[in-house]
Batch of 3 targets.
Target 1
Amino acid sequence: MSEGDAIPEFSKTKAGEGHDVSLTNLSAFASGPGIRSGAEVAAIIAVAVVIIGGIELALRLFNVPHYIMPGPSAIAYALYDEFPLIAPHLGYTLVELVSGFSIGAIIGLVMAAVITQFPFAEKIVAPYILILVTTPMLALVPLLILRFGFGYTPRIIAVALAAGPMVMINAATGFRRVDSAKIALARSYGASTLQIFWRIRAPMALPMILVGLMIGAIFGLLTAVGAEMVGGGFGLGNRLTTYSSMIQMPQFFAVVLILSTLGILIYVLFFLIGKKWASWEA
């Protein structure tokens, strides 16, 4: 291809110019919450203090036993005291999540690329994807345990099956939402299908891809914990089952707090990635 026939570069809007804040569009990540003023930060902290302090005070005033509902102070102490015992189980859960999510995300991205380039493949694959999306993966965990035992394998498979379709659906949506005028212009310059995919479709679909990865990671975390609760002797889900059966509710809620923190970290991670690499609107 001669220099005069080179594929033109398409301009992108600058970060922060978009106004759509829907969680189904990465502009919510790309534009971000912005730099908060001191008054906003103080208001957020004040609300948190009021809520936590109010719960603590109400539980103490009504003498609610810890085995029914522990106070925030009891949960904080349990988290500090039990964390050395919980930490290894946190590591097991992270191994399952990262392994299963990586497998599911790769397969989901490949499938999204295939079905958007070959519509006939979508007609074949779509019914099976629909089954995976609508079937609770936890329902398959006992079957996977019977086949693969109580180790990592059934949990990783369950996480991959939960994350993969979410990544595929969002990525495919992003690949299809590319402006047809850009594709037509690229074809007029002699661009091949592969060049159009890598230089136009993939970059323009990046916001939706990151949203799919975020949703897939959250679904994977929920599936990993559920699978640990169904069977096996390790993982945060196993700790939830153990603490609830022993009516150790401060420790139970300490594990719930850890899981909530993991979910927030997943959101923050993809927010930062989106802000760095996709801070524009397609």
Target 2
Amino acid sequence: MTRRRTSVFDVMNALVLSGIAATTVLPFVYVFAGSLAGEAEISARPFFLWPRNVVTSTYRYIFATNGAFVRSLVVTIGVTAVGTLVHLALTFTMAYPLSKRFLPGRNLLLSLVVFTMIFGGGLIPLYLVVRNLGLLDSYWALILPGAISPFYLIIVKNFFQELPVELQEAASIDGCTELGVFWRIVLPLSKPILATMALFFAVGIWNDFMSPLLYISKPSMWTLQMFVRQVTVSPDVNSTLGVDDPNILPPEQGLKFAVIVVATLPILLMYPFLQKYFAKGMLIGSVKG
């Protein structure tokens, strides 16, 4: 009887999880199929998982013809790479001293960090700060305002506190400075949390469209997400893409789908390489305080 109940539970659990997975995956499949379909088929078929006639003109257009898309893609890759490094450097160098219980004023600093998690100045004060710092129409405006996340900072701090203190003390006895202990001992042991935070920071920067919307006014400096937003919400795709001749445009709806696919694909490809560090980094960094 127990085995039968377990078997029924496993079947029901598999069905429920499969249904949830389908609701998550099917929209991506539909968008990808739509990017390969013609305008008439997209209008005639409300939902399909593969087009009757494959059309690749959308991808050829955005990569070979339209320079604005390629430029926004290069900009986003650069901002994401630099931003991830800056976020990691500032978060880890701040979390390490806060993990030391003998640090003078540690409790006060942690209280201030927690305070910023609960209370914030709001959008308008943040914009005024960015403007007064002269960061408008600068890529640094997309990186520096959110360079340190209090939530991720606390997770990294908790991870550092779980590392063996004996190794750090042994390195100090051998003459290693505090910076040397951090670089030679702590960081090599922090690969799980390092990979996890790098993934979080990269995804956050890559998907951010609010910051470019607020701080970037030049179309030549648009990031990929800003480009995607303008293409998907604009009633006139020609003007958004800077095309005078509408005859060279591929299917308009398929073009929107193709832009979404290309904007989403790089982040999806990152997960398999970081998956083995992901669960371990989050679990270790979230226990104890």
Target 3
Amino acid sequence: MHSSRKATARWLSRLGLAAALLAAGCRGSGPGPARAAAGVRTAGCPRCGGAVRIGALPRGDADECSGVVAGAVHPGTLYLHNDSGDRPRFFAIGLDGALRGEIEVAGARAVDWEGAARGPCGAGGGSCLLFGDIGDNDRERDRYALYEVREPAALGGARRAAAAEVISLAYPDGRHNAETLLVHPVTGAITVVTKVKKKKDSAGIYELSTRPAAGQTATLVGAGPIAAPIGSRSFTGGDVRADGAGVLLRTSSHVFFYPMAPDQTVAQALTGPPCDMPAADEDQGEAIAWLPGGWDYVTIGEGDEAPIHRVSCQAP
């Protein structure tokens, strides 16, 4: 989101969250049958505690976190990037927020980076990070881009550089603003969830199952609408479990879990009713990521030394 709109957006986010909490009460361990809203799943949901602060972003340049994803190569490492206005780079931090590295992305531009994901590399195997230059608040861009970077083999020390594979994207039905980038952990298929501008609008799900040839632009395929069942209607981030068992989507006020069967695509999983999960009170909350090895997840808002929150869950 552009910095000129942040103050208004944060005020609206807090207002929406307050209204949601008054309506639904405290969501410490997921929804119960007595208070489940229409469209919210009440069975097959992870059992969770409340959001707990475990750290904060390091003081310095990582001050507008707009996407985060957990690494696979370095245990306990999160990769995150800033919102629009920064150069093409990302940061590696520990779960407590301690800075572990800064990586410049060669061959990339940073118009409006919104969303980070991890999945199988498009070529050569291994684990790759994807950063989505998919933000478009004013709906004025004709092309969008994803930057695929192999997960760093080493961290620490001086600032590093990483080469990026560029995936150029376009929508089949015009221009869209998006902040949610999802990658299937097995197939590598890419899913983008758009962000609505007005309450009456519906967000859309778009998929890319095959990477385009070098220098070509891929047209995403529409896979239907999606709406948050409660709270804010604007999806601001998401992540797919590394075992493919489900998808997290977040808004500024809520977190939702969509179970995913082994034979489903991400888009198919998003058509079902979600579980209402615990959500922290964060300024301009956009970043969310599963943690490896269990059912815990972390969320981060924007701002200097923004808190890192962890929600501990057990399997459904």
